[in-house]
């Protein structure tokens, strides 16, 4: 295949994990936490089966003319196992995952955690987005953006 006919592709893979958590901010009073987080502030926590679509690879990923792949799916599965399943599946996010000891375990922050974990394992520049579906109605997409606060 000549360079002119090189093709680019985006690769996605999904996993589902189960975890429990309590939405609670140390910066708020008990009353404020109840008001902000409602039933999700239950002291005993609550659980989700997170449907996670964590990887869309882009920037640019050329289909290898020999293997026909942009990335070996076995490698991708292993990266996701280490970055997502091992630290999060069947865990109490607030008690079992050190990241959430100081960060509220919202779906937004779960997406940030997954992004950071995958960034440590994947080749630089490959991760395009992390998408976490907490419920059928709630989905968070994170693309590594940060806003610097002065």
Automatic annotation (TrEMBL):
Q: Does the keyword Lipid metabolism apply?
A: no
Q: Which UniProt keywords apply?
A: Lyase, Metal-binding, Tetrahydrobiopterin biosynthesis, Zinc
> Which Gene3D superfamilies does this UniProt record tie to the protein?
6-pyruvoyl tetrahydropterin synthase/QueD (3.30.479.10)
Alphabetical GO CC annotations of the entry are: mitochondrion
Q: Which cofactor does it need?
A: Zn(2+)
Concerning SUPFAM superfamilies, the annotation shows: Tetrahydrobiopterin biosynthesis enzymes-like (SSF55620)
Return the similarity comment. Answer: Belongs to the PTPS family.
According to UniProt, the name of this protein is 6-pyruvoyl tetrahydrobiopterin synthase
Organism the protein comes from: Malurus elegans
